[in-house]
Design goal:
Blueprint: H1 2-12, E1 15-21, H2 28-36, E2 42-47, H3 53-56, E3 63-67, H4 73-84, E4 91-94, H5 106-115, E5 120-124, H6 134-151, E6 163-166, H7 185-195, E7 200-204, H8 220-237, H9 242-257
Parallel strand pairs: 1-2, 1-4, 2-3, 5-7
Antiparallel strand pairs: 4-6, 5-6
């Protein structure tokens, strides 16, 4: 009964799936084929891949954007958003092409979107600590602290690329898509959204790290530094936003003590 309810819910929604891809020849076809079972409108943005990523997508009923050179994840996502928003849709779902996210879990995000309307729904992996490489886990925790402070509420997994975005979020949203912003954009979206009262809600998903996975494009020290600098600018512009620190960090910590 629950399965049928979710399928009916998905059929009632108009949405697009956006998949940024850079050198994902091992995984991209399987991910896209599985995504097509969840959604008819799948957009893949190839970010100047030098391997067989594009060839692996042959004959699939998708919309493909090809970057002639590597522009970074921020530009890939933004181009995917722009194309998706040309149609009348309710939301956009993003997932990575490296098989870290299961397209079948799209149903989890959509189901919670019914309860948490006008929210960014994030597939959160950090509860599955044992499956996450230690460096990635603690880099995420550091990023969560800063982004939660700047957003003014607790964040469970600010670095997950598996998300559901309501389309009204993109009204007048202006964010840099430069290559230096590659892994900053998704964090900056959370902060910018909070300023217009659009918050995020976490849905627990498994952390999937394959033994044969290609090296991550996320470079912990560099990208966390860039994220921290972006957050720092946001906090300085709001006089360090003490209300945000209280609501996101101090208040939850105090409540945990008295549980």
């Amino acid at each position: 009964m629950y399965f049928l309810l979710v399928i009916n819910l998905m059929n009632q929604q108009n949405f697009a799936v956006v998949i940024p891809a850079y050198n994902e020849e091992k995984t991209i076809r399987g991910i896209v084929e599985r995504a097509l079972k969840q959604c008819k409108k799948v957009i893949v943005v190839d970010d100047g891949s030098s391997d067989k990523t594009i060839a692996e997508l042959a004959n699939l009923p998708i919309e493909l954007i090809k970057h002639p050179e590597n522009l970074g994840k921020a530009a890939s996502l933004w181009d995917g958003f722009t194309l998706a928003l040309k149609d009348e849709i309710d939301f956009i779902i993003t997932l990575d092409g490296d098989a870290q996210h299961a397209p079948e879990d799209i149903t989890l995000l959509i189901n919670d979107a019914e309860t948490y309307k006008n929210h960014i729904i994030i597939g959160a992996r950090l509860a599955d600590k044992g499956s996450i490489p230690a460096k990635r886990y603690y880099a995420n925790k550091i990023a969560n602290f800063w982004i939660a402070w700047a957003s003014g509420y607790p964040i469970s997994d600010s670095q997950s690329g598996f998300r559901l975005y309501p389309v009204n979020l993109f009204d007048n949203l202006k964010i840099s898509t430069s290559k230096n912003n590659s892994f900053v954009l998704e964090s900056e979206i959370i902060i910018s959204a909070a300023k217009v009262n659009i918050y995020s809600h976490a849905v627990t998903i498994p952390a999937i790290y394959r033994d044969d996975a290609r090296p991550s494009h996320f470079q912990g020290v560099r990208d966390i530094t860039l994220i921290t600098l972006m957050v720092g600018k946001s906090l300085i512009s709001r006089w360090m936003y003490p209300q945000g620190l209280y609501r996101a960090v101090i208040k939850p910590a105090v409540l945990n003590i008295f549980k």
